[in-house]
Design goal:
The protein is mostly helical and 119 residues long. It is 58% helix and 9% strand. The protein has 2 domains: 4-42, no CATH class; 49-117, lambda repressor-like DNA-binding domains (434 Repressor (Amino-terminal Domain)), CATH 1.10.260. Strands 1-2 form a two-stranded antiparallel ribbon.
Length: 119
Amino acid sequence: MTVQFIELEGKPTFAVVPIGEWNAMQARMEELQDIADAKAARETEYLPAEFVNRLLDEGDHPLRVWRNFRGYSLEELARRCGVSRQMLSMIENGKANPSAELLAKLAGALDCDMDDLHR
């Protein structure tokens, strides 16, 4: 690469490169950004339409929909969150509301946001 440095007060301040080399360098940087964007997109979780429809239907409590989607039984999710199976059943049936602390534990166990578990 051919580079000319321009100094200001004895310190390198600017770098000048031929336009062809600049264009090639810019193309490489754009390609690297595209690769980084593609990697980030692969890490994004996509939710199946059936799951989303169950959430939108409002027939099932969001906690039940997320629990089923993640493949947890009531017992398993209760164990992970340190509560009883009965408490989770009451929440899923609309007979109890979880505390903020329990909601945070449930969201962590289900890998979702706390807001995702509200009706």
